[in-house]
Automatic annotation (TrEMBL):
SUPFAM superfamilies: Calcium-dependent phosphotriesterase (SSF63829). InterPro entries: Cyt_c-like_dom_sf (IPR036909), Vgb (IPR051344), WD40/YVTN_repeat-like_dom_sf (IPR015943). Gene3D superfamilies: Cytochrome c-like domain, YVTN repeat-like/Quinoprotein amine dehydrogenase. This is Cytochrome C. Pfam families: Vgb_lyase (PF24684). It comes from Pseudoalteromonas distincta.
Length: 410
């Protein structure tokens, strides 16, 4: 059971014991708002409501159904959605700017089984299977996109994985963001193997990537570290970033197998020597610059999302030149996920509603963007990671607990 569903059901249980489970919220008078907001705040910040683009009552009901099983026709569900529609109606304060172009996109969605789990960071193996983690539900999930069949595994207690990566054998490895672990699911026995961090200060493994030698590289955001795990020995090495509070986030490999890391807390990129783990910091322009994730092209150009300033950036390791382009929706668009695919850089504008997907054509250095559709009019997003799959981009929508594949054509 997910944290969200557990908290909601706990609230319903309390209400049932008090004999008011099916009483409308209006019986609470002035306390109506706090009751609704307490339910919402049990799993996420109330600023999500305050900053939302709003919905009609029907669409609020739909969004709630993606988060918890409140019962579509219960008085409780109707009163919650009515309150939200009145106080957080449809508005345009987070409206995105769309740049037209010739490319057309197609979206295929899958709804994960456990609600409220915050499904995220899906990755597709060469065998076609898509794996994801439900961070708040402590779940590792498996999807067969051909049949739609899904299976969810409960991770070891306290894991709350942030991401999942695949090794050369298609084995899913997870990063235990809350208990300082890295581990994998043995596909034959369906049992977990877990490695603990050798340093008590290495608390939050975040995002990882395997190199050609089978070494697993990963970031530890708030610990301000980068890790290296050798699966053949279980040995883990750690290196601390030179600038305090850099908060290493995304990680990718260049053509030589050297890891590059983006800094979510500082205006920097970091290159890791794959042999010595020596760290080289590259300072990026702008005090407000911080970079959630990065992508590396076949010619080793390092592209990054400047999440703090609403820009796409490129660092040229050959000459040290840095170039940045404004995002279509501006400075407060908060670009988040990024990937190289089909001779282009793809990224999202996570602060906009509907959330937008942007394609930067590498040959023309021009952008095209699309509002990302969601089921039944709900567009709360958001994409925190995207990776190229066998046929297209594999993304997720954490708020609605959905996975999706994006393909394109002229």
């Amino acid at each position: 059971m997910s944290k969200n569903r557990f908290l909601f059901n706990k609230y319903v249980l309390v209400m049932a014991v008090s004999g008011t489970l099916f009483a409308p919220l209006s019986v609470y008078g002035k306390d109506e708002g706090p009751v609704v907001e307490q339910l919402c705040a049990s799993c996420h910040s109330l600023t999500n409501l305050e900053r939302s683009a709003g919905y009609s009552q029907q669409d609020w009901q739909t969004l709630i159904s993606y988060m918890v099983d409140a019962g579509a026709d219960t008085a409780l569900n109707k009163d919650i959605s009515a309150y939200l529609a009145e106080h957080y109606p449809v508005n345009t304060k987070r409206e995105s700017k769309v740049v037209s172009g010739d490319l057309k996109l197609s979206f295929k969605y899958w709804q994960v089984p456990t609600l409220g789990q915050r499904a995220r960071d899906p990755v597709q193996g060469k065998n076609g299977i898509i794996w994801w983690v439900g961070q708040w539900g402590n779940i590792l999930g498996r999807l067969d996109p051909q049949t739609g069949d899904m299976k969810e595994y409960t991770l070891p207690s306290g894991t709350y994985a942030h991401s999942v990566s695949l090794d050369k054998n298609q084995t899913p490895w997870f990063l235990g963001n809350k208990n300082g672990t890295v581990g994998y699911l043995d596909l034959k026995t369906e049992k977990f193997k877990v490695y603990k961090m050798p340093n008590k200060n290495a608390r939050d493994p975040h995002t990882g990537v395997f190199d050609e030698a089978g070494i697993f590289w990963f970031t530890l955001q708030h610990s301000n570290m980068i890790g290296k795990l050798d699966p053949t020995t279980g040995d883990i090495q750690l290196a601390t970033l030179p600038t305090k509070g850099s908060r290493p986030y995304g990680i990718k490999l260049d053509s030589n197998g050297s890891p590059w890391v983006s800094c979510n807390g500082s205006n920097c990129l970091v290159k890791v020597d794959k042999n010595t783990m020596e760290l080289s910091e590259i300072k990026l322009p702008g005090a407000k610059t911080h970079t959630r994730r990065l992508a590396i092209t076949p010619d080793d150009m390092v592209f990054y999302v400047n999440s703090g300033m609403g820009k796409l950036g490129r660092y040229n390791p050959k000459n040290g030149k840095i170039t940045q382009w404004d995002n279509p929706s501006g400075e407060n668009s908060h670009p988040y996920a990024i990937e190289y695919a089909d001779k282009a850089i793809w990224f999202n504008e996570s602060a906009k509603r509907p959330e937008t997907l942007v394609r930067f054509d590498l040959s023309t250095e021009t952008m095209q963007s699309w509002q990302i559709p969601s089921k039944e009019g709900v567009y709360s997003g958001l994409i925190r990671h995207m990776r190229m799959g066998n046929n297209g981009l594999i993304i997720h929508q954490t708020a609605t607990n959905q996975l999706a594949e994006i393909t394109w054509s002229k």
